[in-house]
Amino acid sequence: MNMKEFSSLVGLSSYTLRYYEKIGLLKNVQRNSSGHRVYTSKDLRWIEFVKRLKDTAMPLEEIQEYARLREAGSSSVLQRQALLEKHKRNLIDHITQQQSHLADLEDKIDLYKKGKVR
Asked: Which residue in 10, 89, 99, 92 sits closest to 49, CA to CA?
């Protein structure tokens, strides 16, 4: 699929896709005889994973490190696993903190509902 179709499908601008290519997150994008990018289902699966990592607040530098390790092949499997496990722990901590904030907010809202705050 071409850049416009791919951009629409993954919900990223063409600018972002070109940037990801520039910084090494999106590698080996095929090109047609006119030099236009042609994206594959493999590119789609990879970008969906990158977006998921971004949505869970993994820093771009760590996503780039994961991409670099991925490019290295099977010799980096344990390193990739460790990177994802570290991110999982960070995500769990973040979720726990957000749940605490939510509980505090709900308590405050309940005070307003009960008319105990002026």
From this structure: 10
